[in-house]
Amino acid sequence: EAGVAQSPRYKIIEKRQSVAFWCNPISGHATLYWYQQILGQGPKLLIQFQNNGVVDDSQLPKDRFSAERLKGVDSTLKIQPAKLEDSAVYLCASSSRPGTGGNEQFFGPGTRLTVL
Amino acid sequence: DQQVKQNSPSLSVQEGRISILNCDYTNSMFDYFLWYKKYPAEGPTFLISISSIKDKNEDGRFTVFLNKSAKHLSLHIVPSQPGDSAVYFCAAEAVGSNFGNEKLTFGTGTRLTIIP
After folding, report:
1. How far lies B88's CA from each of A3, A36, B85, B91, in Å?
2. CATH of A5-98+106-115, one of 2.60.40.10, 2.60.40.1120, 1.10.390.10, 2.60.120.10
3. Which of A48, A101, A109 sits opposite B103 (nearest CB)?
4. Is A48 on the interface with B (CB under 8 A)?
5. A10 with A111: CB under 8 angstroms?
6. What per-residue confidence (pLDDT) applies to B94?
């Protein structure tokens, strides 16, 4: 079974530029998550999709971040314009059994973003 | 407000001995707790979970203990092996009435180093 794929793996941009990250979840997984992990901290949920609908985006800075999941499969996360504090690893995860509790989320390798 | 806390940023243990990683939480609505393990340049991988109605869950060398009254959980690894060297994240989930919206709240992680 292929894991969660993310690209690019690394990205360096100047502040005020825009950037987009792509995620392909495990086949058949209806739930997709985007997390932000700042150095020295744990992952923080930005947005959760169930199929192509948003379940939770309460911690997404909507003035600069946007995300979509077309056709309930792949997803993109965009930052425009980027700020220095957006430097972090952006993790995508997927799961197959929402509502059961203790449900394992499968994470991709992440995209390391550096904003200069 | 850090709802899930891992107060030890790092821990070193001799190979073959027991590793004990600790985690405290403040939100009494959490009803599932999970441990994830993370190697450098990889996404976190699920290790073990426990429901709040249990006080112990065991899987091979890994055992998680939950003390609800103290809002404390711990992960025991016995015996510790060099491949266990990684960052371990404690995470908590409040399923309850949030069916389909199982948001994980992560701690800041503990870096475990197993000394050969």
Report:
1. 20, 17, 9, 10
2. 2.60.40.10
3. A48
4. yes
5. yes
6. 81
| Interfacial B residues in 49-78 facing A (CB < 8 Å) | 49-51
Secondary structure in 3-state letters for A45-84: EEEEEECCEEEECCCCCCCCEEEECHHHCCEEEEECCCCH
Is A116 an interface residue toward B (CB < 8 Å)? no
CATH says B4-115 is which class? mainly beta
Residue in A44, A98, A109 closest to B42 by CB: A109
What Rg do the C-alpha atoms of chain B give, in angstroms? 14
Are the beta carbons of B46 and A48 separated by less than 8 Å? Answer: no
Strand partners, A5: A24
Q: Do B103 and A101 touch (CB under 8 A)?
A: no
Tell me what the mean pLDDT of segment B9-29 comes to: 96
Considering only CB atoms, A101 lies closest to which of B32, B42, B46, namely B32
In tens, the pLDDT along A22-54 reads 999 999 998 999 999 999 999 999 999 988 889
CA angle (A23, A24, A25) in 5-degree steps: 110
A98 versus A18: which is more confidently predicted? A18
Q: Does A107 touch chain B (CB under 8 A)?
A: yes
Tokens of B64: 């998680």
Domain ranges of chain A: 5-98+106-115
